Amino acid sequence: MRILLSFSNQLMALGINCILSGNNDIKVSICSSAHLGDTLKDKFFDIIIVDMHVLENYLYINECTSKVLLMDTVCDVQAINYALIAGRIHGILDVSSDREMLLKSFNTVMKDNLWISKKCMKQLLVRLSELSRLWNLKSIDLDILGLIGTGMDNDMIARTIGTNTRNVRLRINNIQKKSDVTDRCDLITLSKQFFVFDSSDHDHIH
After folding, report:
1. Measured on CA atoms in the order 113, 118, 123, 125, is the torsion positive or negative?
2. From CA 82, how far away is CA 154, in angstroms rounded?
3. How far is it, in rounded angstroms, from Cα 74 to Cα 167?
């Protein structure tokens, strides 16, 4: 089994390489993030282990046929969720994974199964529980909640979605009841948990 390690912090790669050393069934290579694309063009690897920085900036999934494991180096839970949903990764490793856990993860993903560490699974379950607060919201309510998170007041929201301020107030009251929050500050916090904002342009929600 051919394993490629590529991290923004090379000490992480060296540490994992040390843990896996001595196993004749595994051949480990280390590649800097800057050379990852060229390395994948020249060689095939069964599994690639990366951190979030490398995943988001250097690994082009449509050009990669390897299984991808993400090392959770205190990653943002929302970013992990997106990577899983988008099919960019085949599993999540805890940074404290020992040799046994690493080998189990390799065998799991090579069988086309998903591997998620216990720590990350707990975080994902907590987030799933939080998501349930938004399940009953209509599309327009989610749009308004997203705009609240950008800092817009009710008048700006009304102009953005093409309605009047009174309707926006009614919608916000409805959002507060369904999501069990009491004031606008809580709505802003809730919004930022579920939407990604471009800080340079508050008119766009991603």
Report:
1. positive
2. 29
3. 41
Q: How many CB atoms lie within 10 A of CB 97?
A: 20
Going through the chain in order, the beta strands assigned E by DSSP cover 2-6, 27-30, 47-50, 67-72, 91-94, 115-116
Indicate the CATH number of 136-194 among 3.20.20.150, 3.30.2130.30, 1.10.10.10, 2.60.40.10: 1.10.10.10
Whether the Cβ atoms of residue 70 and residue 50 lie closer than 8 Å to each other: yes
- At residue 92, the 3 state secondary structure works out as strand
Do 136-194 and 2-130 have the same topology in CATH? no
- Predicted confidence at residue 68, as pLDDT, reads 94
Give counts: helices (H), strands (E), the chain: 10, 6
pLDDT of res. 161: 92
The CATH architecture that domain 2-130 belongs to is 3-Layer(aba) Sandwich (3.40)
In angstroms, how far apart are the furthest CA atoms of the chain? 69
Per-domain boundaries in the chain: 2-130, 136-194
**pLDDT digits over 71-97, tens only?**
987 766 667 777 776 678 999 998 888
Cβ pair 27, 52 in contact under 8 A: no
Strand-by-strand arrangement of the 2-6 sheet: 27-30, 2-6, 47-50, 67-72, 91-94, 115-116
